[in-house]
Amino acid sequence: MKVTKEQSELNRQALLDAAARLFKQHGIDGVGVADICKAAGLTHGALYKHFADKQDLAAQAFAHSFRKGFLGHAA
């Protein structure tokens, strides 16, 4: 089943939100990719469609949180 562009963006945002929350609670080393996928309700494949690896996800989750914190929404 093909995912629409809109759903793909929602999935990406769910992964970023879950990662940011879990990294804040447990630190980057305290959270695995499986934990993030489970929290977002998505598969490993969905994560790796959007992010090269855990480090890429962490960097983007940090930037996502920073934008939300300073702008009040995701930019």
List keywords for this structure.
4 helices, mainly alpha, 75 residues, globular, single chain
Can you describe this structure?
By secondary structure, this protein is mainly α. It has four helices and no strands. The protein has helices spanning 5-26, 33-40, 44-50, 54-71. Helix 1 packs across helix 2 and helix 1 packs across helix 4 (54-71). The chain starts with a helix and ends with a helix. 20% of the residues are buried. The model has no long low-confidence stretch (mean pLDDT 90).
Brief digest:
The chain has 75 residues and is mainly alpha-helical. The chain contains 4 helices and no strands. The model has no long low-confidence stretch (mean pLDDT 90).
- C-alpha geometry: globular
How much of the residues is beta strand, in percent? under 5%
Pick out the low-confidence regions: none
Secondary-structure element order, N to C = HHHH
Given helix and strand content, the structural type is mainly alpha
Rounded radius of gyration (Å): 12 Å
Number of strands: 0
Counting H and I runs of at least 4 residues, what is the number of helices? Answer: 4
Task: Give the CA-CA distance, first to last residue.
Answer: 29 Å
Mean pLDDT: 90
Q: Helical residue percent?
A: over 70%
Largest sheet: none
Topology:
Blueprint: H1 5-26, H2 33-40, H3 44-50, H4 54-71
Helix pairs in contact: 1-2, 1-4
